[in-house]
Design goal:
Length: 108
């Protein structure tokens, strides 16, 4: 379903498509991407989804940006709502490619 996410391995693709728009029953949302990462199966199982503090979330955001296949000036604030999209890739057995972005509601 999300195979086109793999294109974010390339800086040029990100430069052309830095945002993803999502239509949900609750309205339209914009996902402002700040990281794309190729991860191993053991990383996926342990991938941090919840944070105990703003400092912990900010440290994770910095790590995600450092590991990203593309570079951007966007650094979300710890108070921002983040969304991660995941797809299977075939770089190695069990590989996943994820993109992470700041979720911005546009309409309800």
């Amino acid at each position: 379903m999300f195979t086109s996410l793999e294109k974010y391995k390339q800086q040029a693709f990100f430069d052309q498509h830095p945002r993803i728009y999502l239509r949900t029953p609750g309205g339209i949302m914009r996902l402002e991407l700040f990281s794309g990462m190729l991860i191993r199966p053991e990383e996926f199982d342990e991938f941090k989804r919840n944070f105990d503090s703003a400092d912990e979330k900010l440290a994770a955001i910095r790590d995600f940006k450092e590991r990203s296949t593309f570079k951007t000036t966007l650094t979300p604030d710890p108070s921002d709502r983040l969304l991660t999209l995941v797809t299977c890739v075939y770089d190695f057995p069990g590989a996943r490619f994820i993109v992470i972005g700041r979720l911005v509601p546009l309409s309800l």
